[in-house]
Design brief:
350 residues; alpha/beta; eight-stranded parallel beta barrel; 14 helices; 50% helix; binds phosphoenolpyruvate; binds manganese (II) ion
Length: 350
């Protein structure tokens, strides 16, 4: 959990919560959602005003006319307000209406030209900006967007993990690929990071699972889509929670302690892991030595480096053995793919 000063001014304690509808649809919708969320202790209200939609013709947000509705939420409900900006005009409009926090959406982060234009529009201001990861699993685009904002002098920057577009069908709308936010956090440890379980899940009933996983991964907060009537929402209707489902989620989330109460046992187990890692890499090194010998043999005999039948055999055998070892066959497959790819590279002529 971050102790970052500006972040703690907005979210004084514990888990940072941002909630609200995908899109601002009407003043009444915003007011009733915000009132419910405020009563649940949420301090920051989100609503999209300009909606980036994959295909034209879908609801693209009501636009600038929703900004006074958000200002009313701020004034009358007493919440901070957040919206997405994708162009310098959006930034200008949002700042004129005293929006407290801006966020850059996943489609925009994918495009460095657009991020740079937004950054230029923010030069000289000190508004907090949250950067969603790009649609594609490339951590550099995410870091790059943060750096563009830092380069114009912004200091109040957070990140939001909202999952990634991947080729394989999964139960999620956007695959969480936790290794990417983990790497982002390693590269930018001072940037607070929230998770948006709604856009990862894509379905309301999966939101709690993803939200809990984010807490287990020590995220600093959650941005959750909440709508008074999800079924009639004009965008992202399947993933939005009702205020009561959101309240249930808050009640069920298990917050994590920053430190273990049994540091000695933890240190011992970690020492065991370190030792096993050492053995694992010694074995890998032995394996690669033999791989290189096999490579020399293939070269002398003029046979190809890649022998698909043999590869298929090892892959199948390891995957069959996975379960007995208490490992998932998918994990074993990914490891074998990496090992095999390296083995092939080791055998190719340099
Ligand atoms: C949103 O927050 O409603 C949104 C459009 O998100 P993303 O940019 O993550 O798709
Ligand atoms: Mn949405």
């Amino acid at each position: 959990m971050t102790t970052n000063t500006w972040f703690r001014q907005i979210f004084p304690t514990g888990l940072a919560l941002i909630a609200g509808p995908c899109s601002a649809e009407s003043e009444a919708q915003l007011m009733s959602t915000a009132t419910s969320l405020r009563s649940l202790g949420v301090g920051v209200f989100r609503a999209g005003v300009w909606k980036p939609r994959t295909r034209p013709g879908s609801f693209e947000g009501v636009g600038t006319k929703a900004l006074p509705w958000l200002s009313r939420v701020k004034r009358e409900v007493g919440m901070k307000i957040a919206t997405e900006v994708a162009t310098p005009e959006h930034v200008e409009q949002a700042l004129q209406h005293d929006i407290d926090i801006l966020w850059i959406g996943a489609r925009t982060t994918t495009n460095p030209f657009a991020v740079q234009e937004i950054a230029e529009a923010l030069r000289g201001t000190q508004v907090p900006v949250m950067v969603k990861n790009a649609m594609v699993p490339d951590v550099k685009l995410w870091c790059g967007a943060v750096e563009r904002l830092q380069n114009v002098g912004l200091c109040q920057i957070a990140a939001i993990h909202r999952g990634f577009s991947v080729l394989e069908e999964t139960v999620f709308r956007n695959s969480p690929l936790w290794r990417i936010p983990i790497e982002f956090h390693r590269l930018m440890p001072n940037i607070p990071i929230l998770c948006d379980p709604s856009h990862i899940a894509g379905k309301a009933d999966l939101v709690p699972i993803v939200a809990q996983q984010a807490l287990d991964m020590d995220f600093d907060g959650l941005m959750v889509e909440v709508h008074v009537q999800p079924d009639s929402a004009l965008s992202d209707s399947t993933q939005q929670l009702t205020p009561s489902a959101f309240s249930k989620l808050l009640g069920e989330l298990q917050l994590k302690q920053p430190h273990s109460t049994n540091e000695t046992a933890l240190a011992q187990l970690r020492a065991d892991i370190d030792q096993l890692d050492t053995s694992l890499f010694r074995l890998l090194s032995e394996r690669m030595k033999i791989v290189r010998k096999v490579g020399e043999l293939k070269r002398r005999e003029g046979t190809p480096v890649l022998q698909s039948e043999r590869y298929n055999q090892i892959l199948q055998r390891r995957m069959q053995e996975a379960e007995a070892l208490g490992l998932s066959s998918d994990f074993v497959k990914r490891i074998m793919e990496i090992i095999h790819e390296e083995a092939v590279c080791q055998q190719l002529p340099k």
